[in-house]
Design brief:
344 residues; Quinone Oxidoreductase, Chain A, domain 1; Rossmann fold; seven-stranded mixed β-sheet; six-stranded parallel β-sheet; 27% helix; binds NADP nicotinamide-adenine-dinucleotide phosphate
Amino acid sequence: MKSIIYSETGDPSVLRLVDRDVVEPGPGEVRVRLVISGVNPTDWKSRRGSSPGESLPFADIVPNQDGAGIIDAVGPGVTGLGVGDRVWITLAAYQLQSGGTAQEYTVLPVDRVHPLPDSASFELGASLGVPAVTAHRALTVAEDGPSRLYPGALDDKVVLIAGGAGAVGHAAIQLARWAGATVITTISSAEKAALASAAGAHHVVNYTQTDAADEIRRIAPDGVDVIVEVAPAPNAQLNLAIARNHATIAVYANNGGDIMTLDVRKHFSLNVRYQFLLLYTVGRQALDAAVADVTAAVRDGALEVGEQTGLPLHRFDLAQTAEAHAAVEDGAVGKVLIEVTAVQ
Ligand SMILES: NC(=O)c1ccc[n+]([C@@H]2O[C@H](COP(=O)([O-])OP(=O)(O)OC[C@H]3O[C@@H](n4cnc5c(N)ncnc54)[C@H](OP(=O)(O)O)[C@@H]3O)[C@@H](O)[C@H]2O)c1
């Protein structure tokens, strides 16, 4: 089978296309024939490493956490999944040498492989893992709940999503809207505004052209309940200005800088909760809840990808994985997907 690997950290040129043997699944594992591999910023960050020359945990690694495909073999003891099932994948490459989705077949523990509703395309399936699971966590960490998402779960809540044209922002808009929230999002351009509206945001605020705090206060005079934050440092003042009492600021990234300054008194006066999150270490319970609720949202038709629903797709083939990584690294607007094998 064809497989992409890297044996050193670095720029996209470290990614190599090789031929490898197809592996049999062991106990508690399934083998998936990948149709689509999804690329996320975490994939290039892992490949690049945090410092030049950083060593890898394995001699070589297959990249990419997200994907969708069809189960073609099951190991001993596997229940609930069978050959022929359409599936979506979470955290494929996490702590595994050859789990990544940039290859024709991957063998994974069953808890990383989830049934994909019949109505969902493989493109959608490969766009869920990192973005939608992250968005789900961010929307379920408020002090007064909810801890799960379903229609009505966020009724009467106002949610602000920073960067609503990003992949996580897009999933957050769709999940929050499905769950009943009033959804406000910030974006930096007219093009991104159109995408965020297409995703379903009720209110779109271009923070480069308006005083975002004034605009959000005008939309939500009592303030915002939950903020899904990609850029906590640059947005710290904005978030304080629009947070309501007991607001939650769910931080999933450090875009715009690692160090932020907070006015302590003003934050405790508002009982603000800052909740940071990292998918790799968030824990099984949060992942299981997200997988179940995201699958339900997909089944309801509430999560969709493509330009018409706010997330343009950029397609590459497996041999172009380096270009796909470079596109994400260069800030492609939309979802970068790798077409691995054709569906027969
Ligand atoms: N903690 C986790 O487990 C986790 C999970 C998923 C992703 N992440 C991280 O989250 C980040 C985004 O991922 P993604 O896949 O959504 O990337 P993406 O599709 O490239 O979107 C990033 C978005 O960030 C927004 N942004 C950048 N600077 C901003 C600022 N100063 N204020 C407001 N928005 C800003 C941009 O929107 P505007 O141009 O409109 O501002 C852009 O659309 C990446 O750094 C990724 O590594 C972390």
